[in-house]
Amino acid sequence: MEENDFREVWRWVLSVGDSILSIYKSDFQIRDKGGNDPVTEADLFASEFLFEKISNRFPSHGFLSEEKLDTNTRLDKEWVWILDPIDGTREFVKKNDQFALSLGLVRNGEAIWGVIFNPATGEFFSKNRNTFFAKVHPPFATEENFRILLVESGSILHPLEESKPVAKKPILLVSLSEMKEGLFSDSFWHDDFEIRSMGSIAYKLGLLSAGFIDLIVSLKPKNEWDICGGIALLDEENFTCFPLKDKGYQFNQAQTLSFGLVAGKKTAVQYLESKIDFHQLSLKVKERW
Questions:
Q1: Sign of dihedral through CA atoms 222, 115, 75, 59?
Q2: Would you place residue 162 in the very low, low, confident or very high pLDDT band (cuts 50, 70, 90)?
Q3: Do 8 and 148 fall within a single domain?
Q4: Is residue 159 part of a domain?
């Protein structure tokens, strides 16, 4: 993989972002895949668009998408692209702008590169040599927006400088549905953290990668496509991330689920552990949505 390959993928993501935003602003079609799991024409279009682009440019690579029938052919591939065309489809349907496209690239099971893009807000998170954040404006597929990505990708984010005082209460993002279900009703969550609920785990991981928040905790299952792109943006020097009921993240597996998630700045994860033992936290993890 060369730098120009990743830049080309940015162009594809900007382009499909225009289509997603156009559908978002329209009276779009929705169907239920079962279990209150909606899918829209935006999900399907974005999945097929990126599958075609990736297959043509990288014919030897595997591909896994939430919205395409999975096969075991990807399992023996060195390189695999893992896509959630719209993470947070329920929020997309509600038109509350808490959703994102998430695309990750895996090499031999390790998430090495990713892009998270929220077309409703124009927030674009990705990496070149370092993780970066950019704000782009519709229409997205323009040379001006592409130049913004090139400029920002050459900069280095400093969200974790030690000279900055650690917030008394770390900003913790949790799932809207998990908050509503009372999974974070214990008093210490509200006493010791600035807790906020938001849709889309991918969007939350993007915000974390740019240093806008401190910590994410989820007590429900996650599929590879939900988290791969975002996990790829969290460098080991500054961040800690792990599933609560598994040893660690290994992508492109036959079983794509992991259970529970903690991701955060290292100091925030250490702070969390001082408030609750991670084994005790893992016992709170649900095995179903």
A1: positive
A2: very low
A3: yes
A4: no
Q: What is the mean pLDDT of residues 103-121?
A: 98
Q: Burial letters for 223-243: b for 16+ Cβ neighbours within 10 Å, e otherwise?
A: bbbbbbbbbbbbeeebbbbbb
Task: State yes or no: 84 annotated in a binding site.
Answer: yes
The reported pLDDT for the residue numbered 257 is 96
> Distance from CA of residue 155 to its chain's centroid?
21
Return the structure tokens found at 190: 């509200």
Given this model, what pLDDT does residue 96 score? 93
More confident residue, 59 or 129: 59
Q: What is the 8-class DSSP label of residue 130?
A: S
The predicted pLDDT at position 158 comes to 57
Q: Is 192 annotated as a binding residue?
A: no
Does some domain include residue 31?
A: yes
Question: Helix and strand tally (H, E) in the chain?
Answer: 10, 13
Q: Per the annotation, does 87 bind a ligand?
A: yes
DSSP string, 156-197: ---TT-TTSPPPSS-EEEEEHHHHHTTTT-SHHHHHHSEEEE
> Taking Cα atoms as reference points, which of 201, 197, 195 lies closest to residue 268?
195
Chain-centroid distance of CA 145 in Å reads 21
- Say if residue 66 carries a ligand binding annotation: yes
| Helix (H) or strand (E) segment spanning residue 249 | none
CA 134 to CA 124: how far, in whole Å?
Answer: 5
Whole-angstrom CA distances from 210 to 83, 99, 203, 230 are 20, 17, 11, 11
In this structure, the chain runs to a length of 289
Q: Is 226 annotated as a binding residue?
A: yes
Residue 136 sits in the same domain as residue 181: no
On whether both 50 and 184 belong to a single domain, the answer is: no
Cα–Cα distance for residue pair 268/49, rounded to 1 Å = 38
